[in-house]
Write a structure and sequence with these properties.
heterodimer; A: about 400 residues; alpha/beta; Peroxisomal Thiolase, Chain A, domain 1; nine-stranded mixed sheet; two-stranded antiparallel sheet; 11 strands; B: about 140 residues; mainly beta; five-stranded antiparallel sheet; three-stranded antiparallel sheet; 2 helices; about 10% helix; globular
Chain lengths: ~400, ~140
């Protein structure tokens, strides 16, 4: 984008089991923080990403409820629903809105309240993000699909499960310094391997936990960026791609076509190459998905992603810092909020506010959020405003 | 699951009804209206054999709420003779009996019940293919 939209305010809740807070409470908290961070500008539109409030929280039409709770009346409100890619797609729609000139400012929020239901029900709702005719009939869960991919990956490329789960270890190391993370502590491979099996060979500490959270950003067009914020963050690209719904119908099960395509489109649109990107936030539902993401983005050849992880080249301070604030495993994965958490964390990095996990001189970051096993991918490229100004 | 939806999905669940592209011959399951391989919209129905080979499997230990009664259960990725890959539960054996390449066949089983007054769903699962064993004159999984 020649004249990129800007992120001028960010906010989020901690990811955790928020027993005392509703889905609305969480969204309001994140939005108020983002609005205050932006100096409370007037908002012309709200885009809300959420995966399953009807199924888990007995509440629909969440975006109107949110606008009402924020005491904002008469503006455009849109809810975006695409499983665990809902958050990034809300951001995508909001950025198109402000760049088109339809709205001067927009609020993009993602929220998920998962602990209103039992874990078995969370597992059931997750299966709806894939072709439910297949998932319910076979009983395959999202971790189950990841388990099949893990076995195929290990067999084809000669990696051990202990090698793959180093991705989760990297997440936790970074989460330890993120006060908003669900699991802010380090773990080692031994801890993963001694946690209970969820779907062989996937173990509990290799899966994103169940948690509640909301994250939000305030967007505006390029002309207002410096007026509203001292350190605006530019959205250089926001690209979406879909690919085959059923994993079993893909030509190669070990490829995430939607991610490869969205990442390429985004880099082309931003007129950047991978070497210009200083850090990456990827959608690691489990370690194998994280490793495959490295390969699809182009950081490693097919079958080589696990080596990048094993050689610790994805740590903060190494060649390709990945999931700098904890990723899905460490920070947590409240489905519809995850895409916005990534945007908030990328903004911290680009504003120099990432604390102990600050990537030195970070100017450009890439975030990837997807639905299920990759039916939809959304890639954003964010940059310090000075890079474009 | 509602009764109308269950009834509507019987063909692909009881008889493994899929689609075959009249243009390029690609086979799919469940049925689909278009062929992603060649772009054709000319599809015909095909009843799949249910025979195939196991590519990979997992044991689900944290099932969704409505499959709790089967926990733990095995789900396999199977390549059918027609070249289409399907996911299905593997029954009548344990994980120790399974290895990639094992021949399997479809069998009609109970899928899930919806409460004491709701519909009971049936459909295909897979089991190791039965072979006539001359030595012992009995049927057993190969």
């Amino acid at each position: 984008m020649k004249v990129p939209p800007a992120i001028v305010g960010v906010g989020c809740t901690k990811v955790r089991e928020h027993w005392g807070k509703s889905v609305l409470d969480l969204a309001v908290e994140a939005c108020l923080k983002a609005l205050e961070d932006a100096g409370n500008p007037d908002v012309d539109a709200i885009y809300l990403g959420n995966a399953a409030s009807e199924l888990m929280n007995e509440q629909g039409n969440l975006v109107a409820l949110l606008a009402d709770a924020l005491a904002i009346e008469g503006i455009k409100v849109v809810e975006v629903r695409a499983g665990d890619a809902s958050g990034s797609l809300a951001l995508h729609q909001a950025s198109i809105d402000v760049i088109s000139g339809s709205s001067r400012t927009a609020l993009a929020c993602g929220v998920e309240k998962m602990t209103d239901v039992m874990i078995q029900e969370v597992e059931r709702v997750g299966m709806l993000f894939e072709d439910a005719r297949t998932t319910f009939h076979s009983g395959i869960t999202i971790p189950g699909l990841c388990a099949i991919l893990t076995k195929l990956y290990m067999e084809r490329y000669g990696a051990d499960y202990e090698d793959l789960v180093l991705f989760a270890v990297n997440d936790h190391r970074n989460a330890a310094n993120n006060p908003y993370a669900q699991y802010p502590f380090s773990i080692d491979v031994k801890a993963v391997m001694s946690s209970p099996l969820v779907a062989d060979p996937i173990r509990l500490f290799d899966t994103a936990g169940v948690g509640d959270g909301a994250a939000a950003v305030v967007l505006c067009g390029p002309n207002d960026a410096k007026r509203i914020a001292d350190t605006p963050v530019a959205i250089l690209a926001s690209e979406v791609a879909c690919s085959r719904m059923s994993l079993s119908e893909r030509e190669d099960l070990l490829s995430i076509g939607s991610l490869r395509l969205a990442a390429k489109k985004a880099l082309d649109k931003a007129r950047l190459s991978l070497k210009d990107v200083d850090f990456f936030e990827v959608h690691n539902t489990t370690s194998v998905i994280g490793v495959l993401s490295l390969e699809e983005i182009g950081l490693a050849e097919r079958g080589e992603g696990w080596k990048l992880v094993k050689e610790e080249r994805i740590a903060v301070g190494a060649d390709y810092p990945v999931n700098t604030m904890g990723g899905l495993k460490g920070r947590g994965h409240p489905w519809g909020a995850t895409g916005l958490y990534q945007a908030v964390e990328a903004a911290w990095q680009l504003r120099g506010e990432a604390g102990k996990n600050q990537v030195d001189g970070a100017e450009v970051g890439l975030t990837h959020n997807m639905c299920g096993l990759g039916s939809i991918s959304c890639v954003h490229i964010l940059a310090r405003w000075e890079v474009v100004a | 699951m509602s009764v109308p939806r269950f009834w509507r999905e019987i063909p692909h669940k009881y008889r493994l009804l899929g689609s075959k592209c009249r243009s390029c011959g690609a086979v799919y399951h469940p049925r689909r209206p278009t062929c992603p391989r060649c772009g054709s919209r000319d599809m015909e129905e095909i009843v799949l054999s249910g025979r195939g080979r196991l590519l990979a499997y997992t044991v689900i230990r944290r099932p969704p709420s409505d499959l709790e009664e089967f926990r733990p259960y095995i789900v396999g990725l199977i390549e059918l003779e027609e070249g289409v890959k399907v996911l299905g539960q593997i029954v009548d054996c344990g994980p120790e009996d399974l290895r990639p390449g094992l021949e399997v066949e479809a069998t009609l089983r109970r899928i899930r019940a919806h409460g004491s007054s709701g519909v009971i769903e049936y459909g295909y699962k897979f089991r190791p293919a039965l072979r006539w064993d001359k030595e012992s004159s009995s049927q057993r999984p190969s």
